[in-house]
Write a structure and sequence with these properties.
single chain; 315 residues; alpha/beta; Rossmann fold; 2 domains; five-stranded parallel beta sheet; four-stranded parallel beta sheet; 9 strands; globular
Length: 315
Amino acid sequence: MSGWVGQFKRDIYSQVKYLQGLRLPKFMGTRNGLFVGSGDSYTCALLMEYLSNHRMLAYHPSDILNCPQVLSDHEIFFLSASGRTHSNIEAAKIARKFGVKTTAITSKSKSPLEEVCNETLILDYMYDPVSSNSSILEFTAMVISCMALIGININLNSLGKIMENARQQVNQYRLDLPTRFKSILFLGDGTSYPLAKYGALKMHELFGFRSFGYLLDDYSHAPIFSLKKPDCVFVLDHENMKNSMSANFHNKLKETHALAYYFQPQVGLSLFKKILFSIFLTQILGLTMAEKLKIDKPYYLSKIRLLKLSSSLIY
């Protein structure tokens, strides 16, 4: 196991320890809030929309930049682990001009985003000074904090059990990974859809694979026709029940496509446990693939020019 893969493994499993000390915010009580973010942060925002039964809405910063009128009568929560995302900062400036209340949710204090928002929620958790540069801990902490904000019951003492269930479900498969992928697909339904998008983003960063996160309904209509034999398909169920739509889809897909894998939370019925299960599962899937492919560092760190371009566009 390479040094980076070993550190990545530690990053994932040490979350159980480091998140125990996460200071949870109080339920905000607002009925018409907007969660705004891009990249991983947008998948967190979208997850809050689904968890709130669409009472809260998820926007990209560009939505605000292109149509500031959407800000009317809303409280805005800007999600950015770094606090430096340029589009978030510009959108927050517009929100300030409209006189709406804004809150920066970030892991960095005294950030540029904090300076242009009315309030700041710092993701306050135990920090691991040695990291694999995978942003694993920051993302999970942001999701849990946002869940607390919208009134989801949080039980940090259950993290160990959730992590173990996710590990067991990944290990039940001997992932038959082809040496060259056409694509990696994550399919989700309901609250597992935003986490399907999160899983796809991690595949781009870690391996440089073509990867997509689809809503199950959308995938069945058109993208399914581009499915190739070497494609890996991961179906994330959000329900703990037999004969769910995701389970039925997987059973039918498995008849014609060998590399289809199905995962279902078995950790209880609470929303918190089901969401954390899917997060840990996608992270452990990335780890398992990294171990099998024997990579020595995440793909994005090996592409210096693309990394500089990405950073120049984001910050």
